[in-house]
Amino acid sequence: MTIDSHLPAATAGDAPDIARTAAGGTDRSPILAGLGDRLIVLVGMMASGKTSVGRMLALRLGLPFVDADHEIETAAQLTIPEIFAKHGEADFRNGEKRVIARLLRTGPAVLATGGGAFMNAETRAAVAARGVSVWLKADADTILRRARRRSNRPLLQTDDPERTVKSLMQMRYPIYALADLTISSEDGPHEATAEAVMAALAAHLSGEAS
What we know:
The structure is a single chain. This protein is an alpha/beta fold. It has one domain (26-200): Rossmann fold. It is 50% helix and 11% strand. It has a five-stranded parallel beta sheet.
């Protein structure tokens, strides 16, 4: 299965400029200057807030927002559960790697990745070369509470979703911890998480320049 053909390029959002500045929050100018043509790449477990926080970040920064899972579905003309069912997880992961590699050439932008994407060593290397990675770290209770609101989580279609989540966390968290930045994403306003990411990016990118 090929799921990276005819992948649409990221396009800038059409929100008014006034919405693109974090009023009373972190100034976007030094972040954009330090970022250059790289992407802000959000990693973490399913339901950790990558899409919601990513959209807010993109709005504040005036950058395109891209959701890797959405791009995969568009290219494959299948939903992710359908890809898993018809082709299996291994095929999905190979396609995911190709799609993310292509998206990383479309910066600057904010990119939300799927929960398993950062586990791939080639993807991590590509993100390190073309992006600034941010792990949105959530605890098991938060993930389960949020995940239960949606039924399209293939890895949670098990007899014991709680055990599955904890097993995935045990396996993935040491790898997520390799990200450039780690931001807590617990229950609460996503706006607060987005502002925490903004502040962390400003400090990180300023440190790169010093």
